Amino acid sequence: MDEENEPEPEVRLRVVVDGREGRSGLPEAVASVWPRTFAGRLPVGDVEIGPRVLVERKTVSDFVLSLEDGRLFRQAMALTRTSVSPLLVVEGEDPFDAARLPPEALRGVLLTLMVGYRLPILRTGSVEETALSVARIARHEERRLARRETVPNARPTAARQAMEILASIPGVGDRRARKLLSSFGSVAAVTAAPEEDLLAAPGIGPATARAIRESCGVPPLPATPDPVR
């Protein structure tokens, strides 16, 4: 059944946006696309989506500053210790190379976050796009909670959790997420895969492959490796 044709779940999931995000316009942007949005003070992260998902939002410039002053990995550790499904959103049109790091070093930082800390990274272009991504994740979480109420003792499997992470990337959805996991075996393998490998997966076209790469924020590998010195 397509997502658009699924019945409305009876569970009504709440989204809490940290009040300190008020200057960014995020609380209003999320509330405009998810009516059950509330302002609050979160000890960790910026957006709480139901009981499982915790989002840390950074602009590209804040991502750079937090990497330079050492906050980035402390915040990543706090997210992964606090939330079942943490997510780092990096917002803005600026490229990651604004970090003034060599591409190899920046790629190492991003892969450490995604693989070492098990912290997925989602790139968005604006506050509005971030809000739409929050609403999409909230819809997935509502459906998951509705399924849990139907079968109270059922626990989400690791495979289902992995599929939900990939399905939250704009343009992927459940069907493509299932095919990606079938081809690559894990979220980490998908996020680390170069674009040409993603294109080889069934049902993954150029637009979806680019969306995955851009959402994960991993710069493309150079055409030829730099010589070892």
Account of the protein in words:
The chain is α/β, with parallel strands linked by helices. It folds into 2 domains: about 10-135, Rossmann fold, CATH 3.40.50.10130; about 155-220, 5' to 3' exonuclease, C-terminal subdomain (DNA polymerase, domain 1), CATH 1.10.150. It contains 10 helices and 6 strands; from the N terminus they run βαβββααβαβαααααα. Helix 6 (about 160-165) crosses helix 7 (about 175-185). The N and C termini lie far apart (about 55 Å). Residues about 220-229 have low confidence and may be disordered.
List the helices and strands and how they pair.
Elements: E1 15-18, H1 26-33, E2 37-40, E3 47-49, E4 53-59, H2 60-68, H3 71-82, E5 85-91, H4 103-116, E6 121-124, H5 127-150, H6 158-167, H7 173-184, H8 187-192, H9 195-199, H10 206-216
Parallel strand pairs: 1-2, 4-5, 5-6
Antiparallel strand pairs: 1-3, 3-4
Helix pairs in contact: 1-5, 6-7
Mean pLDDT: 80
Radius of gyration: 18 Å
Question: Biggest β-sheet, characterized?
Answer: 6 strands, mixed
Quickly count the helices.
10
Helices and strands, in order, run as EHEEEHHEHEHHHHHH
What is the terminal separation in angstroms? 55 Å
DSSP helix fraction: 40-55%
Structural class: alpha/beta
CATH class of the largest domain: Alpha Beta
**CATH topology (level 3) name of the largest domain:** Rossmann fold
As laid out across the biggest beta sheet, the strand order is: 2-1-3-4-5-6
Work out the number of β strands: 6
Strand content: 5-15%
Based on the coordinates given, report the CATH architecture of the largest domain.
3-Layer(aba) Sandwich
The number of domains is 2
> Segments where pLDDT lies below 50 for 5+ residues?
218-229
What general outline do the C-alpha atoms trace? globular
